[in-house]
Each structure stands twice: as structure tokens, then as C-alpha cells.
Amino acid sequence: MLRNKLQINKLYNFTTMDGKNRKFISAGIEVSIVLKEDQRSGNLTQGIVKRILTKSSHHPHGIKVMLETGEVGRVKIIHH
Fold first, then answer.
1. Comparing 12-21, 22-31, 43-52, 66-75, which segment has the lowest mean pLDDT?
2. 31, 78 Cβ separation under 8 angstroms
3. Quick one: CA dihedral 20, 23, 24, 29, positive or negative?
4. What whole-number distance in Å separates Cα of residue 34 and Cα of residue 62?
5. Strand, coil or helix: what is 46?
6. Straight-line distance from the first to the last Cα atom of the chain, in angstroms, rounded to the nearest whole number
7. Tell me, what DSSP letter sits at residue 6?
8. What is the mean pLDDT of residues 58-74?
9. pLDDT at residue 12 in the model
10. Do the beta carbons of residue 19 and residue 78 sit within 8 Å?
11. DSSP state of 36
């Protein structure tokens, strides 16, 4: 019996386009991030990615990026 979304994704090899996978993030795309000081409140900051700071291909809390404004945070939403 499948108990959660992760098991279903593994079974069908789905990949969700969220901020946890580095392969979906590149310089120049528009994202919403949560800044360190906004982690408790959950406030999001929107901007354009300047640099990807996380080296690994996946991070459970979101890939860390620097926006063109210089703000640094973890990606929560990738805008299309």
C-alpha cells in the first residue's frame, strides 16, 4: 500500500518542479524565496536568480540562491 506522495513519485518516477531540485533552477529564472529572517513567518521574496549557492542536486528545505538584488534564501516557488 502506498502511504505518501513520495512513494507514489518514486513508483511512477514523477519529479515535481519545486525549489528542492537544483536541476529546475538556473540563473535568470523568476523564483520566490524565503529569507533566513523570514523562516518563522514564511514571508516570500520574489526575484530573479543571479547565482545558485547550493552545490548538491537536492536539498529538503530548498536550493539556496542569491537574487539579483543580493538577497539570499531558499527557493520555495519557481515561477513559469
1. 12-21
2. yes
3. positive
4. 9
5. strand
6. 34
7. H
8. 97
9. 47
10. yes
11. G
Please identify which residue in the block is written with the cell numbers 537544483. 22
How many Cβ atoms are within 10 Å of 41's Cβ, its own excluded?
A: 9
pLDDT (0 to 100) of residue 18: 82
Name the pLDDT band for 17 (thresholds 50, 70, 90). Answer: confident
Predicted confidence at residue 16, as pLDDT, reads 57
C-alpha cell at 69: 538584488
SS3 of 24, please? helix
Rounded Cα distance between 21 and 7, Å, is: 17
Entry pTM: 0.79
One-letter amino acid at 79 equals H
Q: Where in the chain does DSSP place strands (E)?
A: 30-35, 45-52, 64-67, 72-78
